[in-house]
Design brief:
Distance between the termini of chain C: 22 Å
Oligomer: heterotrimer
Number of domains of chain C: 1
Strand content of chain C: under 5%
Shape of chain A: globular
Number of strands of chain C: 0
Shape of chain C: globular
Structural class of chain C: mainly alpha
Helix content of chain C: over 70%
Structural class of chain A: mainly alpha
Largest sheet of chain A: none
Distance between the termini of chain A: 31 Å
Number of domains of chain A: 1
Order of helices and strands of chain A: HHHHHHHH
Number of strands of chain A: 0
Strand content of chain A: under 5%
Chains: A mainly alpha (229), B alpha/beta (232), C mainly alpha (232)
């Protein structure tokens, strides 16, 4: 019987693939995120009276709030799957660097988040006749924002899953440190919808990239401290 | 195969293991006996690199923990009281996944071989969530030996199993142990332990207090030995 | 128990003298600001507390990193003390800022970058306390706390820079001038002296409080240990 310890990358892919396969079968996580996202938009619709004039300026904010809320739901669930049946131990027992686990979970979390965004965005566009959300720059900001949010979120969900308060704790931990990524994304994507010149979008975009680089790297490096005993 | 010297483990201020010495050779099947809270699970978690030793030296399959933990993990199989399987994946998918995580080279063939070994060949396309506790436990053992480990740790493998499932597990355990591996099993079930193990160590109050080989039990039985060890 | 070090007693006395002096400089020595009048005098303590609040935040992140590297719980005690003390000072900063903002900006609160960042930082502190409260094992509590203090410390400057971008979108409550211009005043030399006295006094008080808090944490740990020993 031959084995050769898998590379960090292939182990991460295996984890992400496993998550996607399980989700494809149960659809628990995605459907919960989607229903929740649509409910949030419905509430915003009435709370903010999203008529044409208001919509222009708040679309980015509404979408990002929706994605952030739905995102915590997914992050919590994805880590609970590992924690509830002790599967996290199964991952930790594999002869790979622990960063691979972070990388793999972050990949599948990101896939779930992007999938929800890919469904919610056309629905929003349809409901409000807002096709500017399909601009390439807008989608780019969406991807960058999701990456930063999911990186920190994956790290913190691994942490909150090991506390007494569990799911309740994740948004409380996540939102204060994710303020920059959420606000920079809102600022950048709002500017894109408003048709501002690229130079004006560049500043929040740069901050977004800075945040992504710092937090992806740091989360990657310190994940080990979250799972060791 | 497993070499532990003066192992100390503290959780905060609480010292769970107090200078534990232990060793197991290839081919040995050691039953680790002891009351609840004696530190058995903690000890196995340290051997499997899930928990770091506070003090002392731990060597498994020639590598020391925690420094060479990835190398240890590649040579070690672990069955805990939870099956470590994903209920939304089929038996085959679960094994496929772990085979990838261990870098098993001939994946499809190895997974089929394991399914056959634990008697789940016919159920390979069923979701693990629909499995009985006994079937899950057999699959968990299959998962633990996927990468042909040199040493295997079982933490209370019989927890929650009925008579039939336990007997079936006996067979699987014997076949796993019979391949020249070092096996360490914690158990409450003295009868079961007696029928499987070649050596019996009693762990209580954070240390091994007594040890005996199967051959030592000509006149007395395991129960007496265990009680004496705890009373000492 | 070790007795209280003399240096700490000296620091206690210095803190009292320092705060007394700062009070004198703020309320009596500094000239009355021409436009805002006496209410401007909260400014000195506002700057003093904001300064140590920020120092504490950075100190916590640094102590957290050192803990993660060394695994020595004394760094955890320093980190926790820094967070606790600077959370209190930040709260005072925000309260004093509000008192000052009421006449200066005609509102108790404005979403100014500094204010908002201070508020977000306060929320990070609260989350930090809630995280620690949810973990029983002191070692794990220290590890998670350190990780979170580090994340908080890293995100705070980015938060500040991001919120600065929103200034143009959020209306400033008072007319067409920018918020900073409305609150600004030329500092006379007397005011500058009062400000530096306040900064100095609060720095001494900060060090003093942290020292006390670290000693208290050490005592807590000792009590835990004794309790545990007695229970066995």
């Amino acid at each position: 019987m031959k084995t050769s310890a898998p590379s960090l990358f292939s182990a991460a892919l295996a984890i992400a693939r496993k998550d996607l396969a399980a989700e494809f079968r149960s659809r628990e996580l995605i459907s919960a995120m989607l229903v929740f996202a649509m409910l949030v938009i419905l509430i915003f619709n009435f709370a903010l009276e999203l008529d044409v004039g208001v919509r222009q300026s708040v679309t980015a904010g509404v979408l990002w709030t929706t994605f952030a809320f739905a995102g915590t739901l997914g992050l919590n669930r994805s880590m609970a799957v590992e924690k509830d049946r002790g599967c996290m131990d199964g991952l930790l027992l594999a002869p790979v660097d622990r960063s691979a686990i972070f990388f793999g979970k972050a990949l599948s979390n990101l896939a779930f988040m992007l999938l929800v965004e890919a469904i919610v965005l056309p629905l929003y566009a349809l409901l409000y006749n807002e096709t500017r959300v399909f601009k390439l720059e807008f989608l780019g900001v969406l991807a960058l924002g999701s990456i930063g949010y999911i990186a920190v979120g994956t790290l913190l969900s691994a942490m909150s899953a090991q506390t007494r308060t569990r799911d309740v704790l994740l948004p409380i931990l996540l939102f204060p440190v994710a303020v920059p990524v959420l606000l920079a994304s809102v600022k950048a994507s709002g500017g894109i919808i408003a048709g501002l010149p690229f130079e004006e979008i560049l500043v929040p975009l740069n901050l977004l990239i800075v945040y992504d680089v710092i937090f992806v790297a740091v989360s990657f490096m310190i994940f080990d401290f979250i799972v060791e005993e | 195969m497993i070499e532990v010297k003066k192992l100390v483990k503290r959780f905060g201020l609480k010292t769970v293991l107090k200078g534990l010495d232990f060793s197991a050779q290839a081919g040995e099947f050691v039953a680790l006996l002891g009351p609840n809270g004696a530190g058995k699970t903690t000890f196995l978690r340290i051997l499997s690199s899930l928990s770091r030793p506070t003090l002392g030296s731990v060597r498994v399959a020639g590598y020391s923990l925690p420094d060479e933990s990835a190398k240890v993990r590649a040579r070690l199989g672990v069955v805990s009281h939870q099956p470590l399987l994903y209920p939304d994946l089929t038996a085959e998918e679960n094994l496929q996944f772990y085979a990838r995580m261990y870098g098993v080279v001939n994946r499809a063939a190895r997974v089929a071989e394991i399914l056959d070994m634990v008697g789940l060949e016919k159920r390979r396309r069923d979701l693990v969530g629909a499995f009985s506790r006994g079937m899950q436990q057999r699959l968990a053992i299959g998962r633990a030996v996927l990468h042909d480990p040199e040493a295997i740790l079982f933490d209370e493998p019989y927890t929650g199993l009925d008579q039939d499932a336990s007997e079936m597990l006996d067979g699987v355990l014997r076949s796993v142990a019979a391949q020249g591996r070092a096996v360490v099993m914690t158990s409450h079930d003295l009868v079961r332990a007696e029928s499987l193990a070649t050596r019996f160590d009693v762990l209580t109050r954070g240390a091994i207090v007594a040890s005996a080989l199967r051959d030592d039990f000509q006149n007395s039985n395991l129960m007496d030995f265990y009680k004496k060890a705890l009373a000492a | 128990m070790q007795s209280k070090p003399i240096a700490l007693t000296v620091l206690d006395v210095l803190s009292v003298i320092g705060i007394g002096a700062a009070t004198y400089f703020a309320l009596v020595f500094a000239p009355t600001e021409a436009v805002m009048g006496n209410v401007q005098r909260v400014f000195y303590f506002h700057v003093g507390t904001a300064w140590v609040g920020m120092v504490g935040f950075v100190l916590a992140a640094v102590a957290g990193v050192v803990f993660l590297i060394t695994k020595d719980l004394k760094w955890d005690r320093l980190e926790f003390a820094a967070v606790e003390v600077s959370a209190m000072f930040f709260f005072i900063t925000i309260a004093l800022g509000s008192i000052w903002a009421r006449p200066a900006w005609n509102t108790w609160w404005t979403w100014d970058p500094r204010l908002t960042t201070a508020a977000v930082t306060e929320l990070v502190y609260i989350a930090y306390f809630m995280l620690r409260a949810g973990i029983e094992d002191p070692e794990k509590r220290a590890r998670f706390g350190a990780v979170y203090a580090l994340l908080g410390g890293l995100s705070a400057p980015v938060t500040f820079m991001v919120i600065r971008l929103f200034r143009t979108i959020h209306p400033v409550v008072i007319g067409n001038q920018s918020a900073a211009a409305q609150g600004g005043f030329d500092m006379e030399s007397g005011m500058l002296i009062a400000m530096f006295v306040a900064i100095g006094a609060f720095t001494i008080l900060f060090v003093d409080l942290i020292w006390h808090r670290v000693r208290l944490a050490k005592l807590e740990a000792t009590v835990e240990e004794i309790k545990l020993k007695n229970s066995i």
